[in-house]
Backbone:
């Protein structure tokens, strides 16, 4: 018997894989290893929120059944999280970027706020695919 449940392993594994991919993409793009913040910030490719929630739903579906109430709840949860990343967080991120631009243009003494960005559709889809992959791997490894 494992010390951690396969559900927790799937969540942690998907988060580590998604955040690690963000860092790797940043290193390739900038040719610098200094952007360590990519290991924990939200936004960018792939969506760690999508990856973790879909990994959880995948493990639940494979272990308990795709026709179970628990899988339905996990799928609803994943859908809400992905919708939020695409619509709400993305919108507030765009508003935050606009506010930052206005502050810069006015040369205001106001400290620039951080504009946390949401996700583009492709980032959410890739995150979900990472989640399916990690969830399936965890299922087969923890049989």
Residues:
């Amino acid at each position: 018997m494992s010390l951690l449940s396969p559900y927790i392993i799937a969540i942690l594994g998907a988060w580590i894989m998604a955040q690690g991919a963000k860092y790797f993409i940043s290193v390739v793009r900038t040719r610098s290893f200094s952007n360590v913040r990519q290991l924990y910030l939200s936004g960018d490719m792939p969506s760690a929120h999508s990856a973790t929630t879909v990994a959880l739903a995948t493990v639940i579906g494979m272990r308990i059944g795709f026709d179970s109430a628990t899988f339905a709840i996990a799928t609803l949860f994943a859908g809400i999280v992905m919708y939020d990343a695409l619509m709400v967080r993305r919108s507030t991120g765009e508003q935050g970027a606009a506010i930052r631009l206005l502050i810069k243009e006015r040369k205001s003494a106001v400290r620039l706020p951080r504009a946390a960005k949401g996700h583009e559709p492709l980032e959410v889809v890739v995150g979900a695919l990472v989640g399916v992959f990690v969830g399936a791997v965890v299922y087969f490894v923890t049989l």
About this structure: The first helix runs from residue 6 to 30.
